[in-house]
């Protein structure tokens, strides 16, 4: 049997499908989780959620800058998303973001999705460093990045306002050599 770069023990990374709208629309009900990822916005209608997901499913994927669904390996259920951004091909660096729906926290989906994404970016696309930014209020993500081997490289103080308080932003990085040492 042939193994896929995009499939781990628990998750598969896949393209968005129009029917994914329902899962992501439900994830938006968890305000704290939404804030931890970016910013809280007003509620979206079902019609809007369906339209946006259908449009995203039709978009062409760039080889280096893209967004994928994190789905369970067992039943292909959407549990979150992972994306690359701020891709710098000259210097071989990129940032990524990850969000896992609140009902799916603490099941190992995020860590496995990150490892799969990094393997692709390092060994298929020849990038040499991954970066992630995490708000100080997102304790679970801070712990995740430290646990999977990212190095804390910096901290921007009071750079975001959400939920009545200012958050610091931590910058994490992992080089291809650090990844290889840890994950082979």
TrEMBL record:
InterPro entries: Acyl_CoA_acyltransferase, GNAT_dom, N-acetyltransferase. Residues 11-177 form the N-acetyltransferase domain. The keyword GTP-binding does not apply. PROSITE patterns: GNAT. Keywords: Acyltransferase, Transferase. SUPFAM superfamilies: Acyl-CoA N-acyltransferases (Nat). Pfam families: Acetyltransf_3. Belongs to the acetyltransferase family. RimJ subfamily. This is GNAT family protein. It comes from Nonomuraea monospora.
């Amino acid at each position: 049997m042939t193994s896929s770069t995009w499939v781990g023990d628990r998750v598969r990374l896949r393209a968005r499908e129009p029917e994914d709208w329902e899962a992501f629309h439900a994830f938006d009900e968890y305000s704290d989780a939404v804030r931890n990822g970016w910013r809280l916005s007003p509620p979206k209608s079902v019609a809007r959620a369906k339209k946006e997901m259908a449009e995203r499913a039709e978009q062409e994927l760039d080889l280096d800058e893209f967004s994928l669904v994190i789905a369970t390996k067992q039943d292909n259920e959407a549990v979150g998303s992972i994306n690359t951004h701020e891709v710098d091909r000259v210097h071989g660096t990129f940032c990524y973001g990850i969000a896992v729906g609140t009902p799916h926290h603490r099941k190992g989906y995020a860590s496995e999705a990150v490892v799969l994404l990094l393997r692709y970016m390092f060994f298929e696309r020849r990038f040499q460093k991954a970066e992630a930014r995490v708000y100080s209020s997102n304790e679970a993500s801070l712990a995740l990045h430290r646990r999977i081997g990212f190095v804390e490289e910096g901290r921007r103080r009071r750079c975001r306002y959400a939920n009545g308080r200012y958050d610091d932003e931590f910058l994490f990085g992992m080089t291809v050599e650090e990844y290889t040492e840890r994950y082979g």
